[in-house]
Amino acid sequence: MRLEAIRIANFRNHRLLEFEPGPSITVIHGNNGSGKTSILEAVHFCALTRGFAGSADRECVMFGCDHFMIRSAFISDRGQTSEVRVAYSAEKEKQVFVNELEITSFSRHIGAIPCVTFTPSELAIVNASPSDRRRFIDSAICQHDRRYLADMMQYRRILQQRNALLAGGVETPSGQAGLEIWTEQMAVLAASIVLARREFLRKFSVIFNGIHAWFPGQQEPSIEYHSTLGPVGEDDGVEDLKSSFISRFRQLRNQEMLRRQTLAGPHRDDLRLFFDGHEIRKYASQGQQRSYLIAMKLALRRYLYESAGEQPIMLLDDLFSELDEEVAGRIIESLASCGQVLITSTDEKKSEGIMNHSLEKDTKTRS
To answer: Could you give all domains of the chain from N- to C-terminal order, each with its CATH number?
Structure first.
């Protein structure tokens, strides 16, 4: 997949901007605050229908304006073209159009334009809460597995209903009966989700370990999936996991009634990230954490490519900060074969195969 051109209006700090990246590595460089990240975020909107880091759509509107507009043109590895338009106004909220047809369900667009990002805020994946790591694995799987996306959406709806029931009290016979119904439905979906996550991690870890080993001076990495079920057997299927979840919910029933919330399920699971047996969020330097996450993102790009046969676009914001020259050089080498890569930096990067794009000199823009 490749972005041919993008035009944004009233988006972040850009009144009007037109940008045409190269087919391989394009480094967008400029001063801090010049809007480099905003270009990547606009591409992200077109690919995944949302901005970076869960930012609200209204926050992306340029100050003093009441709407933004993004128009983009993509071409797939098979030569198929797509025009994506994202429009937002306070009156109509967000609208997404593909080849001038409005997408009424944004989830239908997920995966059509595969995309892998790296932003400084995503370092939370390696050093912050389990929710950030769950978001990583869910986003990765959703881009190529529509069933998983549907299961996740349904699971969240049932979780909301089950929590509402627990919050209102389930001491009555009707409350207990309702809880049993939601528990049965949740167990089925939870089993399917955990099974898909386990399969993803099995394939992803092989790719990740190979990429991480290529970085200079890096320790041996490993990733473990921690479920609220406890250890999950390698041969456990959907029915096994469903039964395990039902048993677990029965064990937790009194606690759930007391705390009035669901205490088990994939919404509480975690990924534990290690190097040489030490948990990275506790023992790694900022540079090591950054390298670890970049290796995860490179592995995700290859995983998505092998799963769907389409090169994802890579959007890498402030990639080189806190990396020494040797590590940065290795990353540039690996990116050369990764299809289209857009990188932001305060400085241009002089290396074979890199197209440098000055935000102040090269971009068609008006403030």
So the answer is: 1-114+310-367 (3.40.50.300)
